[in-house]
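User: Quick one: structure for sequence A, then sequence B.

Assistant: Sequence A:
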Amino acid sequence: MRPIVCTGAMDAETLWLMDALENAEPVTLGCWKCVQGELDGYPVVIVRTNQGMANAAASTALAIERFAPCAVLNQGTSGGHAPDLHTGDIVIGAQVINMGAVRTPERARGAGIDPVCGEPLGLEIANTQPGDGEKKTVFAADADLVRVAAAVCWTEGTVVQGTIGSGDVWNNELDRIAWLHENWGTMTEEMEAAASAQICAAYGVPFLTVRILSNTAVHGEPFDERTGEACQKFARAVMRNYRELTD
């Protein structure tokens, strides 16, 4: 039976799941921490990707090559963009966008810069064929994974579906956060999901990210590391629902 690969960037986003595994076995996955075992009777691989887009892409590719998973679930903490969400709320990433992939308009020398005028830039899906591959500006989640995530009974906070923004950036400027939310539809931001989604698109592996708000500058709520465990519990329920659906 092919496993589900579940990824998170930090110990706070992966250790609870690793400790919950039965028949747990550490695995060498390049230079990334990885543990395989069983969760609720199904094979699962937990990968700590470390923070950032390059780490997420590389570790996701290695995990797909090594384990040939039936799906990849990325989960963890994030910073809120939507004004109606607070720390502890969860966003099911119906789609994810790379906030760092931007095409800016042409401007003459001396015309100045506008950091929020760019449009999303399409990113290439890798392939072995000659010529350029398909380009995507947003990466849609697998419909079955979204459906089973939405079916999780969760009472510890609000659960919504929407767009998650990724990038090697931690935005604290309220005007920029509002611009991203209003123009790109971002509900929350983090630093890994879009990179993992791009790799999964190349391999044809079903992908979903679920992110809990660990902080939100919109409401002046500081980072709370404890939210990482709550998101792992939600992710466990998603994986269980997905296996029950696909058995």
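Sequence B:
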Amino acid sequence: MFYRVTISLILCLSWSIPAWAETDQERAEVLFQEGYILYQERLSPGAIVKFEEAAELGHGEAAYWVGEILRKRYAYMTAEAEQFYRQAADGGEVYAMLRFAQNGNFCGTLRDCDYDHEEWVDRALATALPRAEAGDSEAMMELFSVYWAAGDRGEAFEWTEKAAENGNAFAQFWLAVGLLDERDMGFYWTEAGRREDTLKWLRASAEQGFPKAILKLAVELKEDGRFEEANEWVDRMGQTDYFEALYNYGLILLDGSEGMFQYPEAKPVEGLAVLMALHRQTGSSTVQRSIGGSPAFICIWLRRKERRLISNAPKPTG
């Protein structure tokens, strides 16, 4: 398991477009997927290159993510970000339309930023609603965002439920998080009932392999004192490419039974190797602090563990 995780992290940057990707559409989709993995691993500089290449080949969602990265980089809408959002919106990307429907001071130095909020909400609704009514669960989740932007929390919640019931892993996760945070996500007579539904939807999403749900379910089961179940999902965390899941997985392996998850066995070599692979891939200072920042620290740490095991070994008798 550990070998697979670290190799996948190290090699994801070196992917090349496979031979089967012959059309522009196929090449764009491969580039988009590569970019999205990098984005999930918090590698925005590498991700935006892939997204831009995919957008040049006509990939609407890639154009949306270029706009997102640029907007976040400058904290405001810029002319370049607007250009990519418009490409995405013209390609039918609902979330790009909703950026233009957004209220608030986010234009920065862009002068021509007086977008018609209601016009863009209506356009997003007209794009998503027919697909959602035809059973598209992705479109159902788009409607959640559309109705939320329109201020209709009730409709937003109903479409989230429909998407979750139709097997959308993100909707199931989002519904569970909403129940945890009580974001107007339905009425419950008891907190036990709310808790039961929260874990039900988290489990449904996690069983589909949605990384954020896997991490959240492990945490929630741990909070309930269900450590054996929680650690089954901890092991699944190590099979994802999601930064937060892998980071916590490495820490849990280091702590073993002494940690909050009461993981059955400390695995310092595997845990440190996961953290080192993450640091090498992302350059995260948080990960660096967790591993002490140098191979010398690892050697010292392992020697201390070894001495502790020796000192706790049974003394010879007779």
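The chain has a mean pLDDT of 82. The two ends are 43 Å apart (CA to CA).

User: Thanks, that's what I needed.
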